[in-house]
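Next comes the chain:
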Amino acid sequence: KQIWFYREGRFYQRRYHFQYGHFTRDALLFIFWYMHKAKMLNNKDWEVVIHQNGYKYKKSFIDFVTSIFPNVRFSKAGKKIPKGVRIMKYAPHHFKRFFNEYRNRWKMRRDERFNHFVKYIIDKFRDYCFKQLNFVPQKKKRLLYVPRINPETRSNKTKNPYTGSQRYYNRFIDDEQFELELKRWCNDNNYEYLMWQNCAEIPILDQIKTYAESDIIIGPTGTDWTNSYYCDESTLLIEVIPPEEYHPGGMCETFDSPDQREAIKKNIYNKFPRGWNVNTACKRNLKIIYALDTDIWRPKDGGRGKKINMLLSKENKQDIINYMNDHVSLSKTKS
């Protein structure tokens, strides 16, 4: 018995090819859930093949996937899918075309159902990965700060160790004064302070362990947050979101209506659409910080797209400190 999974289009293959976060969110969660419902997990009677459609996945991806799914293999890049095999297209989202306000070019609008499809799968996926990796998280009093810049060079550029290419993070936070505030808070509360730039140079297993064992995590919105799948509801997650016109999903993913925008500012936005049963979704202690200002620039060395430094106001910083203080107070009460 054999089943093949693949995603159409070279653009999506390229995105998964470069980013473990996109691959996990848009492909691996769906494949896991399909295998779980079809009773294929660790089932020697089934061989599951992930098709490399034009782009070859990184060895780190392949090693991670095959370590948690013993009966999964990757096809040879560039080879066509054999005729007669059973095929499933992963990433079950649909795109709708619509004109933007200027009506001068097409944009793609992602189906809302897909954006929230994965949420009730996440905890099962996390627990399954921990079991397969023989890993039991040991929660530490650690503040993990992931501003998407290098702590030493202050650059939002990263080097891909597999291709030698350098890439920029589109959204990041560069605020040394805020970093000093976080360090002081950690000293006062006996927390370890860890600032890092999450990138392809860091092994996937190390990313999983670092997030799973941290008590507080702060960072701008982006695929770094895929690693929060391995956290539990006792972890405080503080996600900084830029103004709506600079959010990667734009109005269709995160700022779908005025009431949602207002909810973000009041920190009551939970990223679930109307009618969604929150009880069936994964629980996370997620707080949203809505950055009202940005510093926008384009790289001079040919890097693509706008690069957005999210500027935190005094109110933003105080809100973050207050959330951390409340978290510590609540943790003491529970203990």
Observations:
- Residues 314-334 form the longest helix (21 residues).
- DSSP finds ten helices and 16 strands in the chain.
